[in-house]
Specification:
six-stranded mixed beta sheet; 11 strands; about 15% strand; Rossmann fold; alpha/beta; 11 helices; three-stranded antiparallel beta sheet
């Protein structure tokens, strides 16, 4: 017999003690034989403990912020349809997270207004790896993104099936991409776990002649395209998404869109990686970079 409708507590007091002791012994034997599983469970329990502590600290701040926020989020160009997992609606909806107004302008002007929304970052977002959850309620950009996705408490209300990082393919763009991946792994790793986080692959080169245009995503494709077109084709390297015209961009977020899904790893596995690359160990990271610098040899 169990107590209450949820049946989370045994009602038979006469057998409870003996049964709990037996289960405890069996679990101890199992964990001693399967230490990797035990370590994962302990790590998950510690993570949940820390999460509950952080949530208790920010509840008051969250209530105050919820009263102050307006329904309109200035960085968001929303779409008409939204994802609803429970009702199986809004499949194919996506939110592009991009940097700056120029890139946002290209995407916004050629997007599908029914299924494609755009969230514009004003600059490099905050590195949150070593910060607590209350930072999301103190930082306007991170808070607005959380509200845009509607994932403050859980993924049940996620408004877009795909969350797509659309940053420039330069050093700054890749840094912003890493900062956003860190943000989701730190506070919303379930979004990554369920396969909702993607990276938009955009072409680095345009190779064309009078008859044909080929878009290339790396140097190898560029060289192949140049040979295929023959002669002396015009080769353009895109420095950022803002340099791609809306007419051209429409095909890169349309049927031929190339997306790479961000792979998930449990926190015990991903934490050492993010600790090194996104933590406060700047001197160690600097030495790592300096030791691996490749200096071009002049001919």
């Amino acid at each position: 017999m169990f107590e209450s409708q949820t049946k989370n507590k045994l009602g038979n007091t006469e057998i409870r003690t003996d049964l709990v002791n037996r289960v405890r012994e069996e679990l101890l034997h199992f964990f001693n034989r399967n230490k990797p599983i035990a370590e994962k469970i302990v790590a998950k329990a510690e993570d949940t403990k820390q999460l509950r502590k952080e949530l208790q600290e920010v509840k008051k701040l969250a209530r105050e912020r919820a009263k102050a926020i307006t329904l309109r989020i200035p960085q968001l160009k929303d779409c008409k349809l939204h994802f609803d997992k429970r009702r199986d609606k809004g499949r194919g909806t996506m939110l592009f997270i991009c940097e700056g107004q120029s890139a946002a302008g290209s995407i916004t002007s050629c997007r599908d207004v029914n299924t494609q929304a755009v969230f514009v970052l004003k600059g490099k977002p905050l590195n949150v790896w070593d910060l607590k959850r209350d930072v999301m309620y103190k930082n306007d950009e991170l808070y607005n993104l959380m509200q845009t996705l509607n994932i403050e408490d859980s993924l049940d209300g996620l408004r877009y099936e795909k969350v797509i990082l659309a940053t420039d393919a330069d050093v700054d763009g890749l840094h912003i991409r890493n900062l956003m991946i860190t943000y989701f792994f730190r506070f919303f790793d379930q979004l990554v776990h369920d396969g909702h986080l993607y990276v938009l692959e955009t072409p680095l080169f345009r190779v064309r002649n009078k008859e044909r245009t080929i878009y290339c995503y790396n140097e190898a494709e560029r060289d192949t395209a140049a040979k295929e077109l023959g002669g002396k084709p015009e080769i353009t390297r895109f420095k950022g998404l803002g340099e791609i015209s809306p007419k051209e961009f429409s095909q890169f977020i349309g049927r031929e869109m190339r997306l790479s899904r961000v792979e998930y790893a449990p926190k015990p596995e991903v934490a050492p990686i993010l600790d090194f690359y996104m933590g406060k160990n700047t001197p160690e990271r600097k030495d790592y970079i300096m030791e691996r610098l490749v200096v071009p040899v002049e001919e």
